[in-house]
Amino acid sequence: MSNYSNTQEKLSRDDMAQTVAADIPSGAFVNLGIGQPTNVSNFLTSEQGVTLHTENGMLGMGPVATGDDIDEDLINAGKIPVTELPGASFFHHADSFAMMRGGHLDVCVLGAFQVSEAGDLANWHTGAEGAIPAVGGAMDLAIGAKQTWVMMSLFTKTGESKLVEALSYPVTGLGCVSRIYTEVAIFELRGGKVFVRSSHGISFEELQSKLPVELTKA
Amino acid sequence: MAPRIANSAADAVAEIKDGSTVLIGGFGNAGQPMELIDALMECGAKDLTVVNNNAGQADAGLALLIKERRVKKIICSFPRQSDSWHFDEAYRAGEIELELVPQGNLAERIRAAGAGIGGFFTPTGYGTLLAEGKETRVIDGKGYVLETPINADFALIKALKADTMGNLVYRKTARNFGPIMATAAKQAIVQVDEVVQAGDLDPENVITPGIYVDTVVALGGNK
């Protein structure tokens, strides 16, 4: 009774975004982090009825604004001009983060430097000597939504796994990540165990040989 | 009491003294009270503690205050940006103190100050570098960090309109920190496009009630 599946090709960035979009429950309130997660919005369908939240104070965010629609008072958390959809609302920063921290958002999708098998997330600071730290809303987003999903490449440029037993980068949030989308596999984290929902361009056995955590087929 | 209607941005910020703690609204350029910040620059106040989400962008506003070393400490969530060169230089030179606060905790600390709350336990930041040295507590199996209010001497805010009672309405995502900052400062100084007569704003639509507003200056606007 396994749900595990395998495909021959790696997932492209668009494939990953499309897969995340398809997994978002219809009617959900969702926050998409800056970077790769933003691309998910391009694959959400109107039938899904998903409402996007931006932490600088808006629900019902529409696509990026162009031309005459650009309004300096209407921006997203990445400070990019956006549009508003019918039914949008505005609110101040404390309400916006209360909405998040209070568990009212269904899904938050974030990028990551590392995720541990316990679901600990590192995505705000490399801890490098001389680096100027900046956290923004990362820690609030990590622990606030009902579900936190990560999109990342599974390996660093030097080939090390970003799915780890224990974080070596500074923590953003503990035990918060429940799902990880990568170009070669999709993982579900439950009860301290790592389940592989699918692998792409790599067999389960080869994937296991490259990762420092024990894998189970979902 | 109805707020003072200042006749210029310089007049509006004239009481800001050396060593003041100043909340500055805005997220990026949206809601940033640029003219009030420029006036603060002109008035010469120094040794300021500034609270803003960022630490200045490019060569304008808060970035210039930092460049001129008028800010001794900044409390913010996201100082480092592609165009935060004046902050980066001051920070690397050890000439500005940084208190880094997760954005939601920053907002709630400001809200708490305005609401008379002495502190609160938040899950954000628990188990991270930003909770080091802070009191923590496990409540119903979940970890929390004690955070304290950020009280200030002044708030500089941008809104769309004020009426003569100081009631404010904002515009779109330029609202951001404005409403909470207005509550947390001894004196809230607000720049608006336009001041209208009491009764001209629908009370149902007022976002910041005038009780929080001390000084208003109308600067016109494009919108």
From TrEMBL, chain A:
Keywords: Transferase. SUPFAM superfamilies: NagB/RpiA/CoA transferase-like. It holds the Pfam family CoA_trans. InterPro entries: 3-oxoacid_CoA-transf_B, CoA_trans_fam_I, NagB/RpiA_transferase-like. The keyword Signal does not apply. Belongs to the 3-oxoacid CoA-transferase subunit B family. NCBIfam families: pcaJ_scoB_fam. This is 3-oxoadipate CoA-transferase subunit B. It comes from Glutamicibacter ardleyensis. The gene is catJ.
TrEMBL record, chain B:
Keywords: Transferase. InterPro entries: 3-oxoacid_CoA-transf_A, CoA_trans_fam_I, CoA_transf_BS, NagB/RpiA_transferase-like. SUPFAM superfamilies: NagB/RpiA/CoA transferase-like (SSF100950). Pfam families: CoA_trans. It comes from the Bacteria. Belongs to the 3-oxoacid CoA-transferase subunit A family. PANTHER family: ACETATE COA-TRANSFERASE SUBUNIT ALPHA, KETOACID-COENZYME A TRANSFERASE. This is 3-oxoadipate CoA-transferase subunit A. It comes from Glutamicibacter ardleyensis. The lineage of its organism: Bacteria, Bacillati, Actinomycetota, Actinomycetes, Micrococcales.
